[in-house]
Amino acid sequence: GKRVVIVGIGNSALDISLEAARCGSHSVVILCRSGTNIIPVADYYGRPADQMLNTRLFGALPSTLRNLLFFQLVRGTTAKFRQHGMPPPPKGKDSVGFANLKEHV
């Protein structure tokens, strides 16, 4: 039941935070200097999401359509995080956000 603080938002930081949440930590807080887009590891069918984004077909699509598909992917992931307690992003360019995420997806 300890409180855990993770500094950074890279792959290792997110893996460690997930393990800490699964192992019964009282709370897990992730600190980062700036925001980022988090995409799921796999799609609904278990296929790796990064391989989907690196295909010739995806690369041949117009940039507007690629951006729309990427936005949909990120929006779905963000919705899952919000269901588990992540607050919405702060308003304004100088705002500082804080999230205490106990639950994991």
Structure characterization notes:
- By secondary structure, the protein is mainly α.
- It is 41% helix and 10% strand.
- The chain contains four helices and two strands, in the order E-H-E-H-H-H.
- Strand 1, helix 1 and strand 2 form a beta-alpha-beta unit.
- The longest helix is centred in the last third of the chain and has 21 residues, at 63-83.
- The protein is elongated, with a radius of gyration of 16 Å.
- The model is unreliable at 98-105 (pLDDT under 50).
Task: Write out key terms for the chains shown.
disordered C terminus, elongated, two-stranded parallel sheet, mainly alpha, 105 residues
Summarize the structure.
The protein is mostly helical and 105 residues long.
Q: So what's the overall shape?
A: elongated
Count of distinct strands:
2
- Terminal-residue CA separation: 19 Å
Q: Name the average pLDDT.
A: 77
Q: Reading side by side through the largest sheet, how are the strands ordered?
A: 1-2
Query: Count of helices?
Result: 4
- Percent of residues in beta strands: 5-15%
Largest pleated sheet: 2 strands, parallel
Structural class: mainly alpha
Provide the gyration radius in Å. 16 Å
Low-confidence stretches: 98-105
Order of helices and strands: EHEHHH
- Helical fraction equals 40-55%
